[in-house]
Amino acid sequence: MKRILLLMGIVFFGMTAMAQKDSKSISLNLAYGTEVKNVGVGLKGAYFITDEVRAELGFNRFLNKSNTNMWDINANLHYVFNLSEKVAFYPILGFTLTNWGAAREVTDNVTNKTEKIWSYSSRLGANFGLGAQYNISDRVFSLLEVKKQVVSDYDQTVVSLGIGMRF
Does pTM top 0.90 for this prediction? Predict the structure, then answer.
């Protein structure tokens, strides 16, 4: 029942969508990953395929922490619902490629020298979540996104806060 009410609400608010076909945007983001337990920086590019459907390609690089590092590349689709001239929200659905690195320290018994040896693992997964956008001006906007990355052995929630520009 909740899903039906949510879908009806989405359809109702979607009727206010403004024409944006062929517009493009780029945004810089700060992100936090719950599995990597660290902040990262990201860059996203988006393109409106139709007035409501937006394709997005993004990259996040999370900072190294406790001999662990991670980056991801995301390809997502958004269905944008404009609630007003200033506020929009959108569901997120797409794919992710994650790359996780872990370091272990190895000591050479002859020289007694210790060095870090890194091993990496890349995995494909899916993204789903919600985003909100606030239009600061005709060209500048802020965004907040919460998405779940479903990746074998590396599931995590990523929260992003960013600022972008349309052109």
Answer: no
